Amino acid sequence: MLDKEFWNNLYETAQTGWDIGFPSTPLKTFIDNIENKDKSILIPGCGRAYEAEYLHLKGFKKVTIIDLSPLALDAFSKRLPSFPKSQLIEGDFFEHQGQYDLILEQTFFCAIEPNLRKDYVKHTSDLLNKNGKVVGLLFAEEFGKDHPPFGGTKEEYLELFSSHYNIEHMDIASNSIEARKGRELFISLKKQDCLT
């Protein structure tokens, strides 16, 4: 079961291959082009939250991060003690309530059980304001089914997200880190105005 204990254990035993130690290049580039620093931003399954650190240091004040692992959040807090504790949440993303302009996706979608993906699509949409977006990265290849990361295909993602989003962009990222070149899709998904 992919619960708090599972993720804490990975941090305790340094089995954190997804943790690259800095903001992902495609997301850093995206953040550099956000003009409105008043956007409310959520980063689910944030881990050690390098993107949140980058946003905070660039002057974004309305960044909320959430993760099941207190060890990951503690590592972030020690690195960035000026980040507001009220915007740092230890908990289950699927139980989180709030309203945001932007949800940043970075290795969270691939870490949840695949049978929760439809719930992810609906819950992200519920958390977004009108014209809100999910922007980030998804793995563009299949992995094993017995443990995270869980991959997928562009075709699968298009079908999944089109129920709640207009797909603005979903293509192989042009500026991935070397280990992920050609292996991840950069996505920009705009919440649909009216869901039927």
Multimer state: single chain
Rg (CA only):
16 Å
Counting helices, strands and paired strands, the structural category is alpha/beta
Mean pLDDT, rounded to whole units? Answer: 92
Which residues sit in consecutive blocks of at least 5 with pLDDT less than 50?
none
Number of strands: 7
Distance between the termini: 33 Å
Percent helix: 25-40%
Instruction: Count helical runs.
Output: 6
Relative strand content = 15-25%
Helix-strand string: HHEHEHEEHEHEE
Shape: globular
How are the strands of the largest sheet arranged?
3-2-1-4-5-7-6
Report the major sheet.
7 strands, mixed
Account of the 3D structure:
With 196 residues, the chain is an alpha/beta fold. The protein has six helices and seven strands, in the order H-H-E-H-E-H-E-E-H-E-H-E-E. The protein has a seven-stranded mixed β-sheet, sandwiched between helices. The mean pLDDT is 92.
Question: SSE layout and pairings?
Answer:
Layout: H1 4-12, H2 25-32, E1 41-44, H3 50-57, E2 63-67, H4 70-79, E3 88-90, E4 100-106, H5 117-127, E5 128-139, H6 154-161, E6 165-172, E7 184-191
